[in-house]
Each structure stands twice: as C-alpha cells, then as structure tokens.
Specification:
By secondary structure, this protein is an alpha+beta fold. It is 29% helix and 24% strand. The chain has 22 helices and 50 strands. It has a 10-stranded antiparallel sheet with strand order 1-2-9-10-11-12-22-18-15-14. It binds 1-O-phosphono-alpha-D-glucopyranose.
Amino acid sequence: MSRHADYDAIHYAPDGVTFFSRAAAMMREIYAPLCAADAGGVKSSITPFLSGDIKIDKMHYVTKPVSRMDLRAPLRNFFVRTDEGEVFSLTDREDDDAAEVRIGQLWQRLINRSPRLGLELESLHFVPVSGADVEVMQVTVRNVSRRPLGICPSGCIPIFGRALVNKHDHEHVTSLLHRTEQLREGIVVSPTMSFNEEGHHPEQTRYFVLGAEEDGTLPSGSFPTMDVFLGDAGTLDRPGAVVKGLSPVRLEPGELNGREIAGALSFHRREIAPGQSCSYSLLVGQASSREQALEIYQGLRNRELIQQAFEECERFWHHKSGSIVLETADARFDSWSRWVMIQPVLRRIYGCSFLPDHDYGKGGKGWRDLWQDLLSLILIEPEAVRGSLVDNFGGVRIDGTNATIIGTAPGEFIADRNAITRVWMDHGAWPVLTMLLYIHQTGDQEILFETSTYFRDPQLSRSLRKDAAWTPDYGRNLKTMRQSVYHGSLLEHLLVQTLTQFFNVGEHNMIRLESADWNDGLDMAFERGESVAFSSFYAWNLELLAGHLEYLQEVKGLRQIRVFKELEILLDSIGDYPCDYDDAAAKRRRLFDQYYPAVEPEISGEQVELPCDRLIADLRRKSAWLSAAIRFQEWMTVEDNGQAYQWFNGYYDGQARRVEGRRDGVVRMTLTGQVFALMSGLASDDQVRAVITSGERFLKDPVHGGYRLNTDFDVRNYLELGRAFSFAYGTKENGAVFSHMTVMYAYALYSRGFAREGFEVLNTLYRMADHFSFSRIYPNIPEYFDSTGRGMYAYLTGSASWMVLTWLTMAFGVRGYQGDLVIDPKLVQEQFSSEGRAAVTSSFAGARIRVVFDNPQRLDAGRYQIAAVRLNGEALAVSAVPGGGVCLGRDQIASANSCVEILVDLAEKTL
Ligand code: G1P
C-alpha cells in the first residue's frame, strides 16, 4: 500500500480527532480502548469484529480475558434473521468494502452492510463516565432495500464472570459456581464464590447482560447458556438458536446453573419499512446486587438516555485529550497527537496490562512507570497530581530501593506481586525528574518539605540481606529504634535514592545493574553487571538536586536541611570521613558496611540540620566525579569500513565485560547507552555529534526509519546479560524500534540544542505509526515497532508521556521554571504553516493558555529568536532566560484571565 493509500486507510473527520476506516474493518487484531473515567471502573478493548474483553480488575472479568491472538475469537455480536431465514450479523463481511469502523474518544461505531439482504447494521459501543460498571452496545438495524423487511433480532455477549487466572486454571469448575437468573430485562449471573490457591471467598458480584428496544420495550426473552444458544453444531458466529430461528427459552435451575453463559437476548419480530430503522441496546457489566444492576439498566433504558450518556462520554474524553492541543502545519499529525495525549490517561486507568498486548496480565503498575506517567499527567491533569506524588514516596525504602508494584489505593505498595526479591537499579532515578517538573510547573516548593514514611518489608540492603524476623504484623513502615514510625521530608527521600546509588558500584566504578535497569530484559547480570547508562542519569540527578537547593538557598533563603543523622555517612565530604571516589571497593564499603548497618532494620530517628551550602557542594562533587568518569572512561571508538565511530559504552555484563564495541566481528551499540549521557549534559557537544553520527549508522532502521534499541548482537542467548537477547532480533527489548527510548533520545537532543535532530527522531516515530499498512494500529504511539514496522503494544506505554513532555516543553518550549512560564521554542521550519504559524494550547497557573508563534519568514530552529510577546493583545516586557527563551511571571498569567492568548513574534536571530 502506498503512503497515499495509507492516508485513506485512516481518515480523520472534521473534528480532527475521530477517524474512520474501511481497511481496519477487515482486520481482526486491531483494537481500541473503551473505559470508565477512573482506574476502578470498566476497562474494555474492542476490535472491528467486536472481539476484545471487558473487565474491572484481575478478579473480575465480565467477559473472557484476551491476549492479542484471542482477538480472532468472537465476543460481542448482534444477529438479524429475516423472515426468509437469512442471517446477517455485525461480524459478517459480505465484501471488502461492506464495513466501516469509526473510532472516537472513547467509542467505536461499526457499520456493516449486507447488499444481498438490503440491510445495514450499525453498532455503537462506549463506557459511560457516570461511574456505573457497564459497557453499552447500541445497535441500529436499517432497511436499505426497497421492500419491507421482516426481522427477528438477537444480541449476545458471553459472560465469563470470573478471575483472570480462570482463563485456564479451574476454567470449568469455576463455571460451576455460576447461579443465573433470567429476568425480563435479560440475564444476571451471580457466582457463588471466587477461589484459587490463595483462598476461597464468597462472591457478591453480579454480572449482567440486559437489553431493550429503543423505546424501552423489553426483550422477548433470552438464551442464557451456551448450550441452548449455540446447540451442538453452532458457534458464536453461527449460533444454532439464530440459524434455526428458535424461540427464547425459560430454563430450569438444573439446566441454568453451573453453566457457561452465552448472555444472549432475543427481541420481538418486527417489520421495517424501506429506509426505516430501529434500534436495540445491550448493557453488559457488573454490579454489587441484582437491584443495582437494574438501577444501571433504568438509567440507560431507552435511546434518549443512551444518547445522553454517549454525549457525556464524548465530552469527557474530548476534554481530556484537549488538555494540550498542538497546531502545526501538518493537520494529520495534529490529529494523531490528540490520540497520544490521551494515552497517559489510559495508562493511569489500565495500568500496563489490561489491553490485549501486555507483558503480564495482572494489573497494577511498577514504580518506574508510575513516575513517568506522572510526567505528562502533571501537564495534562495538574490538579490531580500533588496527592499522588506525595503518596508515592511512601514506597521508598531506607536502602534506596522501593516497593515495585503499586496497589490501587493511594500510598498502597506491594513489594512484588510474585514475592520475588528483585531490585531495578534505575528506579531511584525517576522521582527527581518528576518532582522537579512538578515544582517548575507549579512553583510549589513546599512539597519538598512535606513528610512521608519509608517502606518496610523483609528486604534489606538492596536485596542482599533479608530480615527473617520481619512479619506483616510489624507493619510496612520503617521504624525508629524506639519503635515509632519514622517520617522524613520528600527531599530526604530523594537524597536517599540518589546518594545510595552513588556508592553502589561495580568493578568499573559504575552503578551496579542489579536485577535490570529501564530495560527489563537486561536481567541476568546481577553479580557483576553495571549500567553506565543509568549512572549518567544519577550523575544528572545529583546535579539537579544541587542546582535546585542552590535556587532555594539564593532565592528563598534556605540555610539548613533536616535529614536523619545516618545520612551523613553518605554525605562524606560534609563529615570527617571523606571517601575516595576512585576506589570502587571503598564506595561499596561505605554503603554496605557503614550506612546499611546504621539504618537497618531500624534507624535512630535522630535528625540533624545540614548547612545547605555544604550539601550542595557534596552533591556537586559527586556529580562531577561520576560525569567525568563516564565522559572519559566510557567513551569508545569503533572502526567500520575505514571510518571511526564513537559513542558511549552503556553496560558491563555479568562477567564484567564491556558490552558495547566490536565483538566477534559484530558491532554492538545500544541507544540506551547514549540517551542519558546526552540528556544529563555530561556529553560534550562534540560527543553529542559523534553519537548522532553513530546512531544514524548503526541504529537507524534503513527501511522504516526508526531508531532501534540496539544493533544485532548476533547471539542465540546472552546469558551474562539478559533475556532480551534471546528474543528474536527486531522484537521488543532486542533491537525493536522501542518508542520510549527513542522519544527520550529526541528529548535529549532537543535539550542539548539539537532541535533539527530531535525533530527528525520524533518524526520517525510518527511516520512509522501513521504508516498504516505497516503499523496496522489505530492512531497512537505503541510501545515498539517490530522489524516489519508493525506497531506492538498499542496505547499503554511510557513513551506517550515522554512524547507529550517533549512536544510541549521542548519543541514548543512552553514550560515552567520555578513556577514562572518560560517560552523557548525549538520548532523546525516545516512545523510552521505556510503563513509561518504554529500554536499550542495547554494549562498553566490555573489558566488555559494558547501560545501562538508567528514566524513569517518560516525560519528554521536555531535561526530565530523571540522578538516580541503580547499577552491578550498587550505588549509585554519579558526577561530573557540564559540559554534561550523568555520568562513570564506566574502572576502575569494567573491574573490575566482564565483564557490567555500569548502571541510570540519570532524574527531572525541577531548575533
Ligand atoms: C515497557 C515497560 C517499562 C520498561 C520498558 C523496557 O515500556 O512498561 O517499564 O522500562 O518496557 O523494558 P513501555 O511499555 O512503558 O514503553
């Protein structure tokens, strides 16, 4: 398919968000999300063939759980049987052009025509944002023939009504728990209990499929079980009851209970005149009682009520994805960006696992993902973020690690779902970035001095020791030796996560890889592995914290910082025991032989006041040491075809061997190894240029254009580094175009002033996603693209959060600085319209702001500067920011209006 044909494959409507597609209507594995407004509600996936699943959490799957391959099996359907005995359903396809799917935020419409029967079926699917646990399916049957049509309609949504694990474990015996009622409105299933190896619990949940005609007329009856609906020969595509035109049944308890549930409702026969239509609804969901199920039903019992709920749903999601709106020269890109905008919100709701592509299927999400999703949520949903930020710190352990899995309640942490003790060395790196973004956007410095507890479980000393005496009765909070729960400031928590890592080094004096870093697949080098990649990140954090404290000292007059006494062990230059940073063993001793014995299993509880300037100097000293070590020790050169290429080594493997470079004739390079060296600022400009050249040469996919996570190491397994290298090359963490790392690469390039290169890198991802015949996904940024260019793991990826962050704060350059607003655009020429305009709308200081850039000469990034700024029409005196851009005081925005328009004139840069 040519690119032109791709444009027709996904066709955006005039609203710039909704799209329709005939090509997608013929695809079984493409899916869209439908969900409630919050994480506790319905989470569904839906394909053009109406497959997918509907669930609340891992214990409550309304319909059978699906992974991608299961999407070829049917789920929701609606059948029309004509008086002549012909059957047509929503999932039949009479020819390649007969069906069309329309997708909006967050709903799906499927239109399916039968030219043969003169029938058109249209279904609308959405989850109301009212808080009810229900998914709505509304079907309209149209007579597009020239004669009256007599029809018998029926709809079906099989109810699973069990836990995720029962997709296989105890699948049959858990169906025996079903107690089913046939009501006039439909079917209610009430499992008697849920059970698994963890225990047996009486179950209160009711699962239901209820239906009505458009005016509220009740269904004519039901076929509750698979047995009666399908018959011996039938399938969900061709159910015996429909094919044979059977009348609905009333089953005796012996036939009804302990069965697999078809959830099939049948409606009264009727005649439709030519050109006329009639509609039906099926409501599927869960409730805590039959009465509650019927209450939900009452709220959606006819066409008008469903229409109201639909409009509310549309408004809600439109508003969410409209939190940040980009206007560039490429309207198609702008539309695509509206779908990326909604992805971080989707990940807040679905976690990482509740769509058909998932790494694991149990829900929840990990520490790293939590902090990264917050990056964009700070920009998209700023009002909701402060509480989560504060709560999250309760997951930090005093050894610098943290609980890995986050429960559903705020501040609820679980060490690891599978009770395996693992430590990801990158975890402590993410909170600094997110906290500082929050503070810069809001000016809320006080948050750093809020206090929180520390997490406690049997794990000690970065998993190297266990506290055999610990039991849940002791409690999940760190205690002092006097047995009171210890509270420290959030700043102190950040210092703990950063300082411990500075000392946690391997043989090359780089931070230990432990159970893995960001790349989950580097999980087999616990003993001797080191991550240079994330050592750069920690070096950056040391400097970021120092810089921020310096600001607080100079501008806010901060003189002392209160921390627990034992932390001084790691602030070696403040006390009397300086540590020789060149001596890796001495560093480890400092951490494992001095600090951990002092704070584990309990700390003294004593706090000390540290002079702010001494703390800043200590952090800077550490940052400078680590940055220099990486800059010189890890910079390497590889000859290829007579040319020298240079880049940073990112890792040491489990045998303490350098991972990158040429080995066995094969060039090994990783993108991760480069990104944080650039982003942190430790790489010189020349090093940035060399990395760009090497990346182009070794990582850029010549066919599809994206940047791969690594070159092909050409190994069957790499047991000294991790499982990633056992994946086929070009998939997931072994050399796929991994969006998250690619976006962070782009961010790093922008932040280093390489705007053109940053744009090109981001653009490769957009082009790949938009190339429908390869990507085969709806508009969104997927987790990765495989070697065929196929988009994998749609919607739920941290890359969306970073993309939003990069667009807003880097490309458009609209970002907070200590609560004020900085405008520092790095847009490239082709992002400006033919009139030289580009704009972004977002929120700042409680106002909706639209920043419009006027660049009448369409100058490229780097060639323009800000010539004038007008706020709601008034020329504004703004101060220039060192390093680029201008700064507007927070008060100027806050006092202006709830709607602020900022016009920024760009003119040729003067030297
Ligand atoms: C996923 C995980 C993330 C991990 C990454 C690489 O990325 O969610 O925690 O760091 O794989 O292993 P995502 O889907 O967020 O892009």
